[in-house]
Specification:
Strand content: 15-25%
Structural class: alpha+beta
Helix content: 25-40%
Order of helices and strands: HHEEEEHEHEE
Number of domains: 2
CATH architecture of the largest domain: Roll
CATH topology of the largest domain: Chitinase A, domain 3
Length: 174
């Protein structure tokens, strides 16, 4: 939350500074400086979140792999079905929790989730993770906030700027 406040402060400062000068060259210099500040702030925020996620994984003693996007995953039970592909319709059992252990959504409450892989409104981290599975696999996906609900959260139970954990079982592919 503190990072979000700092981000807004930098944005507001940049707008105020860019509106205060009469000369175009001063305005451009101030805007470029603000863009650089935002880039640096974002890099620092990503580093902090990655450290938080890595510390969490270490504490849980999970043996997770990491994709190039930052998705962490571990398949803890292997099925024997076909592998998931983009365009197929996946049906999953799932639970979504915060790092503090709070379960925010689950198929036990809402029923199984069905979606077309690569063509749905699901968070990108879930879709990326499902592609790694075969029918019958059970896995944990730890999604950094940029692969989950990002700066805004989901507007209901998932706050802004938080990583989430999906515990999933790929039940069926069509």
């Amino acid at each position: 939350m503190r990072n979000l406040s700092v981000l807004w402060l930098v944005i507001i400062s940049g707008v105020l500074v860019s509106c205060s000068g009469n000369r175009q060259s001063q305005k451009s210099n101030k805007i470029n400086l603000t863009e650089n500040q935002l880039i640096q702030l974002n890099k620092k925020w990503v580093e902090q979140e990655n450290t938080k996620i890595d510390d969490f994984i270490k504490q849980k003693q999970w043996n997770m792999k990491e994709t190039s996007t930052g998705l962490r995953y571990m398949i803890y039970s292997h099925g024997n079905g076909e592998g998931a592909k983009i365009g197929e319709i996946a049906t999953i059992k799932y639970s979504v929790s915060l790092l503090d252990g709070t379960v925010v959504y689950s198929s036990a409450q809402s029923g199984l989730k069905t979606f077309r892989i690569g063509h749905s409104t699901e968070v990108s981290g879930l879709e990326e993770g499902i592609i790694l599975l075969k029918v019958g696999d059970k896995a944990k996906f730890l999604l950094p906030s940029h692969l989950a609900y990002g700066l805004s959260g989901d507007g209901r139970k998932i706050p802004p700027d938080v990583p989430i954990i999906y515990d999933v079982e790929l039940v069926q592919l069509k």
